[in-house]
Amino acid sequence: MATLKLPSTVPSPSEDCEQLRKAFAGWGTNEELIIKILAHRNGAQRKKIQETYSETYGEDLLKDLDSELSSDFQRAVLLWTLEPVERDAYLVNEATKKLTASNWVIMEVACTRSSHQLLCVRQAYHAKYKKSMEEDIAYHASGNSRKLLVPLVSAFRYEGDEVNMTLAKSEAKTLHQKICDKSYNDDELIRILTTRSKPQLNATFNHYNDLFGNTITKDLKADPEDEYLKLLRSTIKCLTVPEKYYEKVVRLAINKLGTDERALTRVVITRAEVDLQRIAEEYQRRNSVPLDRAIGVDTSGDYEKMLLALMGHGDAC
Amino acid sequence: MATLKLPSTVPSPSEDCEQLRKAFAGWGTNEELIIKILAHRNGAQRKKIQETYSETYGEDLLKDLDSELSSDFQRAVLLWTLEPVERDAYLVNEATKKLTASNWVIMEVACTRSSHQLLCVRQAYHAKYKKSMEEDIAYHASGNSRKLLVPLVSAFRYEGDEVNMTLAKSEAKTLHQKICDKSYNDDELIRILTTRSKPQLNATFNHYNDLFGNTITKDLKADPEDEYLKLLRSTIKCLTVPEKYYEKVVRLAINKLGTDERALTRVVITRAEVDLQRIAEEYQRRNSVPLDRAIGVDTSGDYEKMLLALMGHGDAC
């Protein structure tokens, strides 16, 4: 389900570092070489490259990339090079800052990562920002979105397959009642969404559909423009059908007047090693255009090459 | 600060198992031998004994202890033998059951363990109960206490010493304002208590005292009998001066008409390897009686011997 393509024989970290060093040397930067290497190494390999680079040259690979590259391409390469949990910590921290605030990014990280990964992100956040993730989110968010986001990021959901059908049925009724009453920020509704395991929630939403004839997300569309309701619907999608959620993020990013590069980059970078293949399938089904072609039309230069490389295009070296 | 006393030479786990097996053999049980062994082994050693026992005899030490012992002594030995994180998971689970419900136990575990320990308790809870801890707490608690307890157990507080004094001052003012308004369940008040690091909270409460002339716990005594306010005050004590909180739990347990053995057992068992020495000092200072003497007056038999052994009395073997 990942799209990342590794070379048949992966060079040693020191060989990779030497090549990267060459790509940085002299006037101008060899962006293509950087893509050929970094966009074809997995998380563990990139980590090893970073360590070797620092041991060999006494310098920080991320800092060197930062000074050699620019704009969207720079952001994509930097985010990609970071370890996944550090990257998530970085994205969430950015999402709590005024100018780059985004409840979506916070919700995404909270709902699409495994319980264990989310814990590791929270640990990485401590190490990097000397604060807790929920502390920053609770401080910067407010109102209904805070009421939803703080328990979402603090959850450590059970990950087994066991499902309690009686509970699923009764909680489906609770959810329906709250939605009928338009109590979208009700404590019970938020408790269910933020604490139950993903398989349990799936069963609950299925019962909801069976009992009341509509999907829960449909019933949550009372006011399509309400930002909190949008966040609630997306939370449910992320918890149950993340590939559909991501398809929509990419679709909106591409269809915008002027592409939303931040969103596009985020999806490609964070999902290339996870489920970008499934997201691309969803995209093609929904838009009748292959995702790589759509990206090719909407982006250009090294940035385009980087994204397409992560989608499995081009040669690895 | 722990009171646990280990023998100068600790026997091997197989020797310990052999002795325990002897204590169980024939008519009657040798309770004293059980105490001499188990009450003088630390967490890692008890774990090894459990493993060796199961490997050697194909039986579960906890089950055998359960069938050999009875009443308060049984509960003390079983709780003690469990690994600390499993014990905490057990105590919290018990605290979410109707007949043994206790918001205090949940709050205690959430506020007096380190962030890392609390995570491990949540993992142990998954393994044992096939659910998440916050899921059970959110389901069983309600109202204001739920609003406080769920974020308390879900928190992963930063544990560094860095303190932001400007923030401490502004949040002290926020807390004071909410308390003046009697908004004890206010979102901001709960956000501060449930997300900030312990050193940061300590600074905030100090500013509170400096700025407004009263400690925050004093100002939270508006209605001394209100259960939620009591829980709020205890939360603050657990986060900043846990030994004082525990001293009071023990004092109330002992001074009750008929000792509260569950509370007494819980404090001695969960703190013997942590800070029972400090708690005993607090107890003596507050009551002018040494804690071990008070326990001796209020309890008897093997139960008394077990508690006193954990306080450092008696011979280890």
TrEMBL record, chains A, B:
Residues bound to Ca(2+) 3: 298
Organism: Deinandra increscens subsp. villosa
GO biological process: response to cold; response to heat; response to salt stress; response to water deprivation
Domain of life: Eukaryota
Amino acids binding Ca(2+) 1: 24, 26, 28, 68, 254, 256, 258, 299, 304
Family annotation (InterPro entries): Annexin, Annexin_repeat, Annexin_repeat_CS, Annexin_sf, AnnexinD_plant
Record keywords, A-Z: Annexin, Calcium, Calcium/phospholipid-binding, Metal-binding, Repeat
Protein name: Annexin
Domain text: A pair of annexin repeats may form one binding site for calcium and phospholipid.
Statement: the UniProt record of this protein carries the keyword Ribonucleoprotein: no
